[in-house]
Design goal:
heterodimer, A: alpha/beta, Rossmann fold, about 25% helix, B: Pyruvate-ferredoxin Oxidoreductase, domain 3, six-stranded mixed beta sheet, 20 helices
């Protein structure tokens, strides 16, 4: 029985097999020591007892300290400081060894202690697919729902319990195929929640069919002669749905992932985070050009607000030529960093341009070019959230009409009396 | 209410007038184009009738098209009111007065009119154009169609124009108020008070004094016309029904459902979250609830039926009262979410206002076709409570009850109303909030496993000591021994963090489990939990005439939900003809209420009328192995008592 197995493992250990370098580890504190069995079953190794979260841990305060409310580190007054372990459930993590999901889980569990909410206030809502199992592994409130519906379910939860911190965990099939409708409506309504979309460009849990983000021509179990479907670019779907926060990150860059997730949490409104996630079983290497050190500098553009858009270790930059983007070589005298676009996440038009970097758009002269894929916060605007509007309206009506009185409501309208009271 | 208008005579004391005939009951049907304002005319006649203290039942009947081409048969909108001094249970078998605004209305509805009944026609629409639009070859007044009926010809359009000759209103606006003339005339004919309608017009057109005065004037003219014309030999009156003392209002089922939900929220202290996608005929509930935001009601117009259900379930996980409403096609879309609610054992209420099916079917016509869908329409074994209110006013009680069952037993509950209930109205004796059944919700506040064996460990599966890994813990699937409900822990409660989901859960811990024995156990426990709902139910009352319950008899007519009125009226007629017949109307379709086996054993024969092709009858055969005879009707119209009587007499003859 799996649960007996599970009880043999260290309850607080991150149970995961050997991972490729860079996976799920931002502090180097958990050098993988387990071994994947040939069958791929999990045989996790407990992390060393001395491993810590030195990079993220907040200063430990004595109980009751900080009662003046000026703590400023985001922890609740007088509450014990939480660590990553506090957000690890006692459940066996059952993703395939080497799956990018481990790194995402780890990033979330490292981030949560840093946030200004109590553990019990976090709720993770997921749909179906490999990503759907995520809530079982986070020791917070969680709901593993049905295929594609997580944003709708989370909308009801957040609207009716606005004080909760709601996270939606979804995948490319879940969010963009069966649940596309719910995703776009949650975004347009600006429901205050974080939507983490694990994009691996494949249906993994059903063992390898092409997904709505798979590239055209992809050969899979369900497309032996190549997929004829044009793929979605998730960022542009979010732009089209008027999302108020749109970001992209990757499983192989835990620091970046954590920073982007934190920004998404801080954003009041629907925060859409696309995470490039490697499915090493059915779509291995789908994003390696962006994530692996050999090609990453040339192919990934890390956006930072107020900073020029440069990449390839500042040897290249992105400039605007007319209405087209163009890669410029900063190693020659022709272009300098001053010629490069400066990122401004609040600029809608810029976001449109950045969102287009997915297809191979030619430059202004019609020459073929390959633009670097942008990562980071692509767009962010502040506008009222669905919950703000809903509850403001309720408060306004209540103020105007007075708090509801059930007897008065039942007796509303045209009534008449039969019997002794008549007259 | 006092008479507000001095120049309209009071109707009090008219029954002694030589020209006024007292009737025990009457049925009036207003019919015209969907733009003729027939629903409004009918509801105002109903209001006046309620004020005259008649018991009543109504049947609005309108087309699915919003404004079908004028004058055509498929654009006919009707509103039938049955009122009486006795107990009125149905909108009436046959019509005593048909007010027909055009030839198409005659063509569509004449069949409902009692031979010898009155047909009041708007002669201004009885011309060649009108006949052509109604696809009639000849004038029904001349081709014998109306033979045997008393025909009253009134130039409604012309008289209305004359009445409003002095106003500045456009001809179009003037013509639109001709329904008020018809209303005034009908009020006069049945000695109903005019004050309620005049007052209503005053409020409705408070901002448009000219329209207000025009409508009031035309209504009064219609009333006076009745007095001065000599077309009516007799005027009628229906005495007050002797309703139980108390304060009343007329209520439509849709309103009653909405109020029941607000009451449940108010009494439980849970905020109502109502997820809804517009669908005929359930949208009226959304409209009603969206008015009551000062009760903290959150109405969410979702992107689709699935999101409507999902958002409600999300709110329930959050510890609120998650409710959604729909009709048959929408229920189909909500199926998977309801299954999730069953698996996660979260409370959720789904209102299904049934309409003719399958598929889009008859969107504005009534049917009881979704019983199987409600009972069985999910993958896996997923029983849930199904409740069916038996009258428009009962919708209030049923909605309240559905919410209580859902939260007490941590289960989705389906409430099956239908078009007939939702749109129909009847007098409702208003309850007091203080008299409503108590509605308390216990949220889990602390770990429920402390290392000591608990009293309910039989339900805790592998963890017989009631702990999780030997530590004090919160076990989300550790059940109440009484109800078998699992605890409800609101997110945000420290120490009770837990996960639910659609994967099978281990008893007690709620961990994901694929264990064969555990799945068997959980499936059995989920079914047993639903069965326990029946512990709270009373054995249903058998109807054998007013206030009577026969020991037994030749025939028991067993129906469900909205068929109650027709069944009881049928029983009255059968008994008056010497048959030992009784009726039983089920409000609880699952679990079935206790005591049915004993009741069924008391009767020789069993007839099961229902507005589908035989659904309850199969459930009953399955559960009780008796010879239940089906009587199905799927014509978009409710049963008339006569139809049930006919079948019953054939059985006992």
């Amino acid at each position: 029985m799996p649960d007996d197995e599970q009880n043999e493992t260290t309850p607080d250990g991150t149970k995961r097999p050997t991972l490729p370098p860079g996976y799920g580890d931002d502090g180097g504190d958990e050098a993988p020591s387990g071994e994947a069995t040939p069958e791929g079953t999990k045989k996790p190794a407990a992390p060393s007892a001395s491993s810590g979260d030195a990079g993220t841990k907040k200063p430990t305060l004595p109980p009751g300290f900080g009662g003046d409310g000026a703590g400023g580190d985001g922890s609740a007054e007088g509450e014990p400081v939480l660590s990553r372990k506090d957000f690890q459930s006692d459940q066996d993590v059952r993703w395939c060894p080497g799956c990018g999901d481990y790194a995402i889980l780890s990033a979330v569990q490292r981030l949560l202690p840093d946030l200004d909410a109590e553990k019990a206030e976090h709720v993770f809502v997921s749909g179906i697919g490999c990503a759907g199992r995520f809530p079982y592994y986070v020791d917070a409130y969680g709901m593993h729902t049905i295929h594609g519906r997580a944003p709708a379910i989370a909308t009801g939860l957040k609207a009716s319990r606005p004080e909760l911190k709601v996270w939606v965990v979804t995948g490319d099939g879940d969010a963009l195929s069966i649940g596309g409708n719910h995703l776009i409506h949650a975004l347009r309504r600006n429901v205050d929640m974080q939507i983490l979309l694990f994009n691996n460009e494949i249906y993994g849990l059903t063992k390898g069919q092409y997904s709505p983000t798979s590239e055209q021509g992809k050969v899979t179990k369900s497309s032996p002669y190549g997929s004829i479907d044009a793929p979605f670019n998730p960022v542009r779907v979010a732009l089209g749905a008027d999302a108020s926060f749109i970001a992209r990150t990757m499983d192989r860059d835990p620091q970046h992932m954590k920073a982007v997730m934190e920004a998404s949490y801080d954003h009041p409104g629907a925060a859409f985070v696309e995470i490039y996630q490697n499915c090493n079983i059915f779509n291995d290497g789908a994003f390696f050009e962006f994530t692996e050190k050999e090609t990453k500098p040339e192919r990934a553009l890390f956006l930072e607000d107020g900073q020029p858009m440069t990449f390839a270790e500042s040897a290249k930059g992105l400039r605007l030529d007319g209405l087209s983007l163009e890669v410029v070589d900063l190693s020659t005298r022709r272009w300098s960093v001053d010629d490069c676009l400066v990122h401004d996440a609040s600029d809608e038009m810029l976001a449109e341009l950045l969102g287009r970097i997915f297809w191979d758009d030619p430059d202004a002269d019609g020459n073929a070019q390959t633009l670097p894929r942008p990562f980071g916060v692509i767009y962010q605007e502040e506008r009222p959230t669905y919950g703000d509007l809903l509850h403001t309206q309720i408060e306004g009506v209540t103020e105007k009409k007075g708090a509801g009185d059930l007897d008065a409501l039942l007796h509303e309208g045209d009534t008449w009396t039969v019997g002794e009271e008549q007259g | 209410m006092s008479q507000t208008d001095a120049d309209v005579p009071s109707t009090d004391g008219l029954s002694t007038d030589g020209q006024t005939e007292a009737l025990p009951e009457a049925t009036v049907l207003f019919a015209g184009d969907s733009g003729d304002g027939m629903q409004l005319t009918g509801s105002q006649f109903t209001l006046a009738t309620a004020h005259a203290e008649s018991d009543l039942a109504t049947l609005p009947d309108y087309p699915a098209e919003i404004r079908a081409p004028a004058g055509t048969t498929y654009g006919i909108s009707g509103f039938q009111v049955h009122f009486g001094s006795g107990n009125v249970r149905t909108p009436g078998d046959s019509v005593d007065l048909l007010v027909a605004m055009n030839p198409a209305a005659v063509k569509v509805h004449l069949g409902r009119v009692e031979r010898g009944g009155t047909v009041l026609i708007n002669t201004d629409a009885f011309n060649d154009r009108g006949f052509k639009l109604a696809d009639l070859d000849a004038d029904p007044r001349e081709d014998g169609t109306l033979e045997g009926y008393r025909v009253v010809e009134v130039e409604l359009s012309k008289l209305t124009r004359e009445a409003l000759a002095d106003t500045d209103l456009s001809t179009k606006a003037v013509d639109r108020s001709k329904n008020m003339f018809a209303l005034g005339l009908a009020l006069w004919l049945f000695s109903r008070p005019t004050a309620p309608a005049l007052e209503w017009i005053g409020e409705k057109f408070a901002d448009k004094p000219e329209v207000r005065e025009a409508n009031r004037h035309v209504l009064k003219k219609g009333y006076h016309y009745g007095e001065t014309t000599e077309q009516f030999a007799t005027r009628y009156d229906v005495a007050p029904a002797g309703l139980e003392a108390g304060t009343y209002r007329t209520i439509r089922g849709a309103e009653a459902l909405a109020l029941g939900l607000v009451a449940a929220s108010d009494q439980s202290g849970l905020d109502l979250f109502y997820g809804s996608y517009p669908i005929t005929p359930a949208s009226d509930i959304l409209h009603e609830l969206s008015r009551h935001k000062n009760f903290g009601v959150m109405t969410f117009q979702a992107e689709d039926e699935i999101a409507a259900a999902g958002s409600a379930l999300g709110a329930s996980f959050g510890g609120q009262l998650g409710v959604c409403a729909t009709s048959g096609p929408g229920l189909a879309l909500k199926t998977e979410t309801i299954g999730l609610a069953t698996m996660t054992e979260l409370p959720m209420v789904i209102l299904d206002v049934q309409r003719g099916g399958p598929s889009t079917g008859l969107p504005t016509k009534t049917e009881q076709g979704d019983l199987f869908q409600a009972l069985y329409g999910r993958n896996g074994d997923a029983p849930l409570p199904v409740i069916a209110p038996d009258g428009p006013a009962d919708c209030f009680r049923a909605a309240y009850e559905a919410c209580r069952i859902a939260t007490t037993y941590m289960t989705p509950v389906i409430l099956l109303a239908d078009v007939y209930l939702a749109n129909g109205s009847e007098p409702w004796k208003l309850p007091q909030a203080a008299d409503l059944p108590p509605f308390e919700v216990d949220f889990a506040t602390e770990p429920n496993a402390n290392g000591h064996a608990g009293e309910n460990d039989e339900n805790s599966g592998a963890h017989a000591d009631g702990t999780k890994n030997g530590e004090a813990a919160f076990l989300p699937y550790r059940r109440s021994t009484e109800t078998l409900a699992r605890p409800w822990a609101r997110p945000g409660t420290p120490g009770l963090e837990h996960r639910v989901g659609g994967l099978e859960k281990e008893a007690g811990t709620g961990d994901v489990s694929y264990d064969p024995a555990n799945h068997q156990h959980m499936t059995d426990v989920r079914a047993e939990k639903i069965q326990r709902v029946a512990r709270d139910l009373e054995p249903p009352a058998v109807y054998s005439g007013a206030g009577e319950e026969a020991e037994g008899g030749d025939l028991l007519i067993t129906a469900w939900g909205s068929a109650r009125g027709a069944v009881e009226e049928a029983v009255d007629r059968l008994r008056s003809r010497g048959h030992a017949a009784s009726g039983l109307t089920l409000r609880h379709l699952w679990p079935l209420p206790p005591g049915l086996e004993k009741i069924f054993a008391r009767f020789e024969r069993h007839l099961v009328p229902e507005q589908n092709n035989g659904q309850l009858v199969r459930l009953l055969r399955d559960e009780f192995l008796r010879d239940f005879r089906p009587l199905g009707k799927v014509q978009g119209q409710p049963f008339t008592p006569g139809e049930i009587v006919e079948e019953a007499e054939a059985m006992v003859a």
